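S.,

Sequence below, as promised.
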Amino acid sequence: MFELKDVKKYFPIMGGIIPKPVEWVHAVDGVTFNIRRGETFGLVGESGCGKTTLGRLIIGLEKPDEGKIVFRDSDKRTYVLNESYKMYRKRIASKVGVVFQDPHLSLNPRMRIKSIVREPLDIRGDTHSSQSEKDELVLKMLENVGLDASYANRYPSELSGGEKQRVAIARALISNPEFILADEPVSSIDVSIRSQILNLMKDLIAKFRLTCLFISHDLSVIEYVSDRIGVMYLGKILELAPVETFKDALHPYSMALISAVPVPGKRRKNRIILKGEVPSAINPPSGCRFHPRCPFATPKCEKEEPKLIEVEKDRFVACHLYS
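The prediction came back faster than expected:
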């Protein structure tokens, strides 16, 4: 469905009396991978590694500085995001739905729930449906996310965090999209109901046969919902693998992430403690981005950037240990 080729996105840091760029944040720095139709692709990494920016690039909310993004819809039409930025946004808008991180901020507090959920249909100018048909579709979509008709006339302030996120999911699905971007959809929700929202999303993705990019810093969440996992660090993809084989991760950073996932009732043995802090995205390290913290780093890692190569069937890693 999506193919990314050497995508880069830098953000300027302005300075001086007459503001001008003095430094650049390397948010996404040469990313190449694909998202297959019908899969849930999980993107995991520490906060600030560029996950959200990458998601925004894919759905056309940001324009890449270099590289290109190719989108192929269900009718086998192809749209390319490089120079034709406005056209890409316009054509892809009705084909994607977004579930944002914080439902308290992503829902308009002055709108009733029925208006919030119906808004994508109103913006699209759907002339094939009457107002009553739209309202009926809203009630059906609320039912799909586990909310009865009584919620339609309420305001967001009358709902709990989990209920708000269910509304956000209903809004993302009502325009019948082909692709869902879920950006940290459970990180702002009470721990006690996260599993309910995750199970709901998994069920709806399967029911409507959707493709999904699921972004999270929580590896246990990513492993639960995803078919394939990508590991991101300082604007780079370090490893790609099917979820079944990811427990035997190849990249040292992926190994460290897995070792940090708590296991209920057990004490983690051989926990990998990384040294130092994550380097600045303004002035990233030369060579491999991970080498200042890697326990297996060699002089080659400091000078030469590893390429993302396929080391096994459908398993890719950017590490000199495998080149």
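The mean pLDDT is 90.

Coffee later?
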